[in-house]
Amino acid sequence: MAFEAVKTAFFHSPAYAVVGASKDQTKYGTKVLQWYKAREMDVTPVHPKESELEGITAVKSIEELSSPSTTSISIITPSKITLALLQKAKELNVPALWIQPGASDRDCIQFIKDNDMVDKVIYGGSCVLTEGDSFRTNH
Predict the structure, then answer these.
(1) Is the model's pTM score more than 0.90?
(2) Which residue, of 3, 38, 51, 55, has the greatest Cβ tally within 10 A?
(3) Closest by Cα among 60, 63, 62 to 51
(4) Concatenated DSSP letters for 44-110?
(5) Phi/psi class of residue 127: alpha, beta or left (left: φ > 0; alpha: ψ in -120 to 50)?
(6) Residue 119 has what pLDDT?
(7) What was the pLDDT predicted at 5?
(8) Cα distance between residue 126 and residue 139, in whole Å
(9) CA distances from 86 to 38, 82, 122 (A)
(10) What pLDDT is recorded for position 18?
(11) Are 127 and 33 in contact (CB under 8 A)?
């Protein structure tokens, strides 16, 4: 499935959030947060316990983002958490979500399809770390 239009829309948001980053710099969630930070993008980590990650103030949930409806969200969480995030993102009218490899399962994909979110969600193996720069600069 081609996600080019969704990837382009993802990078048209004025703000970004990363769900799944932690204090462990070897984890992919933290690497994704560092990717945004290195590009001086307006990014907010979302973590239920930490008040800051990588020197950036964190919020406890996506509901606490200053403007969820204008924030694209990268998700690097276990699939059960991802499914709950998808449900909440739909309620909050989040414009675009990028589910990183390994963060979704059949239930997540079914939710995306059943709730007409296919044009808002990137899933199935694409990674912002390897594809993000080309969509930021070329589209």
Answers:
(1) yes
(2) 3
(3) 60
(4) EEE-SS-SEETTEE-BSSGGGSS-GGGEEEEE-S-HHHHHHHHHHHHHHT-S-EEE-TTS--HHHHH
(5) beta
(6) 94
(7) 87
(8) 17
(9) 27, 6, 12
(10) 98
(11) no
Mean pLDDT confidence for 35-52: 97
Q: Do 54 and 45 meet the contact criterion of CB atoms below 8 Å apart?
A: yes
Task: Mention every residue, 6+ apart, whose C-beta is less than 8 A from residue 79.
Answer: 103, 104, 105, 107, 108
pLDDT at 1: 43
Q: How far apart are CA 90 and CA 98, in angstroms?
A: 14
Residue with tokens 């560092």: 34
d(CA 119, CA 42): 23
Smallest CA-to-CA distance from 95 within 60, 119, 59 is with: 119
